[in-house]
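Dear colleagues,

As part of the handover before I leave the project, I'm documenting each prediction I ran so the next person doesn't have to rerun anything. This entry is a single chain, and its sequence is reproduced below.
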Amino acid sequence: MLNKVLDEKNLLDHLQVGIYRSHPGLKAKLIYLNPFLQKMLGLSVKETANLAVEHIFIPPSTFHLLYKKLSHEGCIKNFEVRLKAKNKKNLWCSFDATAVKDPEGKILYIDGVLQDISWRKQFEQDLIESKELFQTIFHNTAAAII
């Protein structure tokens, strides 16, 4: 019973956030995506087998910047990124990652968490547009507003 409770893969497979592991490097390939991240990106297990991590970032240079930061600092928290989803519009995600290193400091792999924040980015955009519309009406009306 205890083994069933402590089954980490089972845990990762049921989380409602995207979890991944990749090889290190600027041309890193994905090792693991949990089912939620596969669903977010619209990718099958077969499609992720040889997928380079940079190909899911928009633009791919974002991944290069993040990897350099990760190499120096060891982790990244709450970085907002755009991801390319298959057969869907692009996603905005909050990105957290950790460089897992051996005792000599060499990066063995990257573990990451991606949470879809597209709804929040859309809300922010709607708020900006609403504010701009209000300001346009306010500044262009001939009547006094009290």
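The first helix runs from residue 2 to 5. The two ends are 69 Å apart (CA to CA).

All the best with the project,
I.
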